[in-house]
Amino acid sequence: MSATNTSTASCAFNGYPELHAYAGKGPAVWSEPKAKAPVRLMLGPGNSVDFPLFYPASPAPNGSCSIPVDDDPRIEVLPPHPAPTDYGATVQITDLHGRNVTPVFCDTVHLDAPRLR
């Protein structure tokens, strides 16, 4: 997952974003950081930060997944410390080549430590 500073001024990226995936009014999964270490990065104009995502895409031992691939989940992301009027954004997951991927979410999505790009 990536975020880019689109303003003309530097900004602080302070904390982890939240990812929420759901299939209609049915099943849903949320994200949590892999490590609980605080995150505070300064992003200059046009700079980006990447948060690698890790999630099990194979069924649990009982054979179930929270959101199987045929459910085509809606994925929303909220920035850390959103303003009262910031409802986040809907995102599409892509592979390393930029091709759209329909994810299979079988459990919590873990966000790894951010990396400046």
Question: What does this protein look like?
Answer:
By secondary structure, the protein is mainly beta. Helix content is 0%, strand content 34%. The chain has a six-stranded mixed beta sheet, with no helix packed on it. Strand 3 and strand 4 form a beta hairpin. The mean pLDDT is 86.
Helical/strand content category: mainly beta
**N- to C-terminal distance:** 12 Å
Main β-sheet, spatial strand arrangement = 7-10-4-3-8-9
Assembly level: single chain
Mean pLDDT comes to 86
Low-confidence stretches: none
Give the topology string: H per helix, E per strand.
Answer: EEEEEEEEEEE
Largest sheet report: 6 strands, mixed
C-alpha Rg (nearest Å): 15 Å
Helix proportion: under 10%
Count of DSSP H/I helices = 0
Question: Any idea what the shape is?
Answer: elongated
Q: Could you give the count of β-strands?
A: 11
β-strand percent reads 25-35%
In short:
Helix content is 0%, strand content 34%. It has strands spanning 2-4, 11-14, 18-22, 28-33, 40-43, 48-50, 53-54, 74-78, 89-91, 109-111, 115-116.
Supply the key terms.
about 120 residues; mainly beta; 3-stranded antiparallel beta sheet; about 0% helix; about 35% strand; elongated
